[in-house]
Amino acid sequence: MGIYDGVKKYIRSHPHDVEAYEDWFEMARSEEDIEVCKEILRGISKTVSSPYVPIEDRYRGHDLMKKLNLMLAPHYFHHYCLYLEWNREPKRRFYQPRMKQLYPLTQALQDLEDNKLDLLGISLAPGVGKTTLALFYLTWEGGKHPEMQILEASHNTDFLRGCYDEINRIVDPDGEYLYNDVFPNSPRVNTNAKDLRIDLKTDKRFQTFEFTSLGSGNAGKVRATKLLYCDDLVDGRETAVNPIQLEKLWNLYTTDLRQRKQGDACKELHIATRWSVHDVIGRLEREYNGNPRAKFINIPVLDDNDESAFNYPYGLGYTTEMLHQQRAIMDSLDWNALYMGQPIEREGLLYEKDQLMRFIDLPDVEPDAVWAVCDTKDKGDDYFCMPILYQYNDNFYLGDVVYDNSLPEVAIPRLAKALVRNGVKQCRFESNSAGGRIATEVDAMVKSYNGITNITTKYTTANKETKIIVNSDFIKKNVYFLDDSKQSKEYRTFMNDLCSYTHVGKNRHDDAPDAMAMFVDFISSGIANKLELRKRFF
User: Fold this and answer.
1) Tens of pLDDT along 343-383?
2) Cα 350 to chain center, whole Å?
3) What are 146-162's pLDDT values in tens digits?
4) CA torsion angle 331 337 342 347 (round to 10)
5) H-helix segments, 232-299
6) How many of the other CB atoms lie within 10 Å of CB of 300?
């Protein structure tokens, strides 16, 4: 049995012995065994959190954790972020309070350094910490590769000056950050506030950190040999809604910024709040679709339960209430782009959300009929989409909807229960693909619940896009949708996809407009024409 194995065996039977961990660390440090240091850190982290460990041993354990993170910091970005702020007050730290949410990004940035990726795109809402995390990453890369060039670009110089100042603070030998502990051989040697330049280790013609604004004519002025970092190239809504401006922006990126890259080792990092499907990060995502050397991450600000994904400690980030209020006052397309990372093609929108008719409560009388149609899930991230509409004279109220991209065994019981719950008498399933089989299963389940729904199927041969467009006028004139304040998360998702459908561009999801078009076809069919409806006077 080796010494390592003997120490590990001893610790397993004495898990609260901090001195044993210290001895283990000294052995690992003498051999520069980074993997063993990671194992020790996992163990001592559990030990110091135990209530059975004396307070003085906990302090020793925390000191050991600091040493371990210092050993790991040059190799792992996550540990660099932790060690960099070790001496700061907990509430003043950036990374640790946000670590749970930002850790996936930290790992993706690690992959960029480890040559697992050539390009990384990160889309996050404003104010959640994406730029500061990137600046931490830049200083880590600069410390590791001080003789190479890192170029940061953005939409204006004022923003870049703030980034320049923050990097200066991080690498300042007299500052509160511990950069110089991690990279003692990559000190700051020169700064140029006028031209926004910072050099590490040695003076160079092209400095370690260089900053430039988009379109400032960069030929011969700056270069990127290690990293080209683009942060929020779109300057605001005015540019985002202008296709000509977006095309100009793309051309500036491809002919100016990207031309500054030199050598095969230079990676690309794009971090942005999304504005448009045609912004730079969106176009790159389409260009690199299917390329394993490129990765694109988007984290919506609200999770699947409609709660904040970025509610940080110490009152940082966003509470769920704050986000719901923000959503209520914003244009829905802007909200989806900026906060959910789901930009929508504005040109050619078929349904304008603010132009659709709304209701708060159903009329206080029995409906003439209750209808439903179901567009079944085909593949991938498609949805089971079943709108349920209450008819009063010639008007239809979308009272309920099942909009579920779960597996059939999860969605089918929900479809059946919704039909029974709403007292639907007529429902048509599209029988394309697996629709016929699903209709049969839902029908059997409805009968087992003593439901009254008559379920029929129809195979559709009509062109989907044509069907959606020609039936849209009826929907705008005759269908009422729930007021935003009354919508469930599922209903809201359905409405977002309905109102994001464009007839001039690509659509990520067309299940909602397709199902509504199915509904118009259904009530216009022979079954609907045979139903005798009483005229209401209200």
Assistant:
1) 877 777 888 888 899 999 999 999 999 999 999 876 667 89
2) 26
3) 999 999 999 889 999 99
4) 70
5) 237-240, 243-252, 280-287
6) 16
Q: What is the rounded CA–CA span in Å between residue 448 and residue 305?
A: 30
Whether residue 254 contacts residue 182, with contact meaning beta carbons closer than 8 Å, is answered with no
Most distant CA atoms of the chain, gap in Å: 92
Please report the pLDDT score of residue 402 as a whole number: 97
- 3-state SS of 425-460? CEEEEECCCCHHHHHHHHHHHHHHCCCCCEEEEECC
User: Is this model's pTM higher than 0.85 or not?
Assistant: no
* Buried b or exposed e, range 431-463, using 16+ CB within 10 angstroms: beeebeebbebbbebbeeeebebebebbebeee
Tokens of 135: 């600046």
- Report the distance separating Cα 346 and Cα 242, nearest Å: 10
CA distances from 379 to 120, 462, 512 (A): 27, 20, 15
Q: Left, alpha or beta for 393 (phi > 0: left; psi -120 to 50: alpha)?
A: left
CA distance 24 to 4: 7
Q: Two tokens at 464?
A: 């989907």
The token pair that represents 219 in the structure block? 């030929």
pLDDT tens digits along 285-329: 999 999 999 999 999 999 988 999 999 999 999 999 999 999 989
Backbone angle region of 220, left / alpha / beta, with phi > 0 → left and psi within -120 to 50 → alpha: left
pLDDT per position as a tens digit, 127-137: 999 999 999 99
Asked if 281 and 272 touch (Cβ cutoff 8 Å), the reply is: yes
Q: Find the helix or strand (DSSP H, E) in which 142 lies.
A: helix 130-144
The mean per-residue pLDDT over the stretch 250-261 comes to: 90
Beta carbons of 153 and 230 less than 8 angstroms apart:
yes
Tens digit of each residue's pLDDT (9 = 90 or more) over 11-36 = 888 878 888 888 888 888 888 889 98
